[in-house]
Amino acid sequence: MTEADVRAHLDALAKPRGSLGRLERLAVRLAMTQRRIDARSHPRRIVLFAGDHGCVADGVSAWPSAVTGMMVATILAGQATSNALARAHDCPLRLVDVGVAGPRVGAPPPFFRDARIAEGTASLAHGAAMNVGQFEAAWQVGVEEADRAADDGAAVLIAGEMGIGNTTPAAALTALLTGTSAVDAVGRGAGADDAILMTKTRIVADAVARAAPLLAADDPVPAIAAVGGYEITAMAGFYARGAARGATLLLDGYVATAAALVAERLAPGTAAAMIAGHRSAEPGHAAALAHLGLDPLLDWGMRLGEGSGALVALPLLDAAAAVLNDVVRLDAIGAERAD
């Protein structure tokens, strides 16, 4: 199946050719991600991956790492933004702890998985955030979650994240994998002031400078692990496996797109399954999307994470699938095209 096949299908429907504008372009993209003209947007699933980051202790965030655990508890209680949006859009949610510091959750709900590899990464300000073994373990968690979703029939997969300080490794990964400067890759995250922004930019620049020589080697994993995070790596494995299983990958914001960069670097072709839900307010997000060749559906200045931007964009995929599947053909109603 080619893009021309999908466009021919759309042109044969009971409407003027191209009259749905960008929605038709989205329908083509949706069909190509699933490699079928009758592409679906149901069932779907969002998996939130949570992890802490050692670099928070070095002053890269306006919030302490303890907030990660607090927000995990809020998600488990069904009271976070991601819970509300997932319910609103009929998108089952799972939460996976791959690296949150602190006591483990007692008697968690069925949608929670404890897959903790460590209590947060080491600080990328002083050395490698993860070793290769930790990276591979986190990647495998994502693979397992994608397989679980695909086995349950999910046609659309969203990866979200929760991790205080994770825009720092996201910026480092973006700079490392796209060549963007640290100044252009680093943003204010969850409210960093000017002093924090300067510290964050310096730490990212230094970490990327240490990792860049490793990226030039035959195996890029040590370089990526050095500046990554457990939840980001799990999302990357989730994307790579989800694409291999034929699902559409609806991307969220900056951190999720940094994971998409990792997935595409280690599993080339994964980006063909991606649709960008939105462009984040984080300055480096545009560079990450451009590197992947993705045009975001929304540009609303969102920067929460948790898969929230992708969830807001999800109804647009429903509309595209409805056009592909539910509109009658002109020849079926005896009409002749006049346009």
What does this entry look like structurally?
The longest helix has 22 residues, at about 195-215. Helices cover about 45% and strands about 10% of the residues. With about 350 residues, it is an alpha/beta fold. Helix 6 packs across helix 11. The chain has a six-stranded parallel sheet, with helices on both faces. Helix 11 (about 255-265) links the parallel strand 5 (about 250) and strand 6. It starts with a helix and ends in a 13-residue tail after the last helix.
Topology record:
Elements: H1 3-11, H2 22-34, E1 44-51, H3 66-76, H4 81-88, E2 93-99, E3 112-114, H5 132-151, E4 156-162, H6 167-178, H7 182-185, H8 194-215, H9 221-227, H10 230-244, E5 248-251, H11 254-266, E6 274-276, H12 285-292, H13 308-326
Parallel strand pairs: 1-2, 1-4, 2-3, 4-5, 5-6
In a nutshell, what does this entry contain?
By secondary structure, this protein is of the alpha/beta class. The chain is built from 13 helices and six strands. The protein has a six-stranded parallel sheet, with helices on both faces.
Index terms:
339 residues, 6-stranded parallel sheet, 13 helices, globular
Number of β-strand runs: 6
Shape: globular
Low-confidence stretches: none
What proportion strand? 5-15%
Adjacency order of strands in the biggest sheet: 3-2-1-4-5-6
Tell me the helix content.
Answer: 40-55%
Radius of gyration equals 20 Å
Average pLDDT value?
96
N→C terminal distance? 25 Å
Task: Count every helix, treating DSSP H or I runs of 4 or more residues as helices.
Answer: 13
Secondary structure class reads alpha/beta
Give the SSE string.
HHEHHEEHEHHHHHEHEHH
> Strand count, sense and closure of the main sheet?
6 strands, parallel
Oligomer: single chain
